[in-house]
Write a structure and sequence with these properties.
146 residues, alpha+beta, Arc Repressor Mutant, subunit A, Dna Ligase, domain 1, 3-stranded antiparallel β-sheet, 3-stranded mixed β-sheet, 6 strands, 39% helix, 17% strand, globular
Length: 146
Amino acid sequence: MAAHTHTRQNLAELTARLRQRDRRITGPRQLILDVLRREEHPLTAKEIHEQLDCDLATVYRSLRLLEEMAMVKRFDFGDGTARFELLGQNDDGHHHHLVCRECSTVVEIGECFRGNLESRIAQEHGFASVSHRLEFFGICPECQAN
């Protein structure tokens, strides 16, 4: 599994990244960054909201802005709920997840077949700038035991 650097970023570095892009350091933005930097896996807006003292609409607006600024990445695990994860300074956020269909436990998968597969598919079908998003689903060991 790949370890991601987002958990090692301190809040001062993150707020400096906001300032570099001429964005105000609002309380909710700073709090959201703080919540995400302490988490190992993507969180839903509601999970973030539960840890903050602001309204849910503010959380959604702030997440949208942070996503536009490439500070967070949105993931879709097929359940209709977006999840968000903090991105490192020069991290494109490209990695995969293994998600338990029962308890929603998330494991990050470090392996990827990016370059070769994408270029082969592009060439085969005449496409350019091919990318992919891939998530794996299964039943985790704990749910299997239950």
